[in-house]
Amino acid sequence: DFVGFQSNFAIIAKSVRASEKAAENTRNTNGKCILASSFLAYKKLIANGLKNNNLLFTGYPVIGHQSKMQTSGSCLYSPESNKATSCAWDPRIKGLFFYESTAILPSTNFSDFIRDVKRLRDIKPENFCGADIYNGFLFRYIKKSEAYLGQSEDSIVVDFNYYRADDGLTPRLNQDVWEEVEQMAFIKYGAKPHWAKNRNLAFVDVRKKYSNFGKFVEVKKRVDPLNLFSGDWSDEILFGKVGNVKEDGCALEGECICSEDRHCSPKNGYFCRSGLVYNEARVCRFSSSSLS
To answer: From the CA atom positions of the chain, what is the Rg in Å?
Structure first.
């Protein structure tokens, strides 16, 4: 019963969101780390949702039916009419609101990516606390596939979640860190994107990452000639229009990679700068001197 997919008292999700917003608004990195530490301690206590007897976690080893492991969480069965409890993403409450970036890297260069991430972390470890409030860096494994949009070799998937502001033009604490990790994955190491879990910049030049992309589009046109299973976003992605237009603040929501300060938020002290480890990255970094 994965903890992230459990139904909890709505006040808990609201409190977590309010605490994270307060830390963001006051630029309180230590506050986010304290919040993250409490989350990690709780997840360890309940084994992230594993249960020995369908009710509680009483200790390792956890032995049971694989069918139970394959199901997600009890949110699936929670009554919609009960407003005191809810799933964390329920739009009726002011609960969690975050980005999820998911990169698929060949197993041959995954270790290099991790080394770069560690180098970035080591510069200021507390800057990474934002991911620990959610699931940290979550790894999964995918076998080589001959599907047109499958992986051409055995691959490792890395997911990481991080804070998203209520307003798309509001910059985030440690904005530059997550942008650099994102660009490391998708640009430096050529990671392929998860098709449902990324910001738009992850799909820049995506057609070039699949040798059979053209065949996929041909089949799509054949089986869906009326484009019923498409939308503006998927059409942009499939036909390579992402990243052509850069507007003020576009980097804040991952609509573009910044190349000018206006793509960030100069009025809030965020300017377009080079990455700290991956120097070719272009990220929105906060500068306190600009506000003095």
So the answer is: 20
Phi, psi torsion values for 267, nearest 5 degrees:
-65, -25
- pLDDT score for 246: 85
pLDDT at 2: 84
Q: What is the torsional sign of CA 235, 96, 4, 89?
A: negative
Q: Are 87 and 78 in contact (CB under 8 A)?
A: yes
Cα atoms in the 13 Å half-sphere on the side-chain side of 96? 20
User: Containing H/E element for 271?
Assistant: strand 270-274
Give the chain's residues under pLDDT 50.
243, 292
Question: How far apart are the C-alpha atoms of 154 and 109, rounded to whole Å?
Answer: 11
Question: Can you state the percent helix, strand and coil of the chain, rounding each to 5?
Answer: 40, 15, 45
Q: What is the pLDDT of residue 243?
A: 47
pLDDT value at residue 4: 83
Measured CA to CA in angstroms, residue 38 lies from 56, 71, 134, 284 at distances of: 20, 26, 11, 29
In sequence order, the β-bridge partners of residue 139 are 158
pLDDT at residue number 237: 80
| DSSP H or E stretch at residue 76 | none
Asked if 168 contacts 252 with a C-beta cutoff of 8 angstroms, the reply is yes
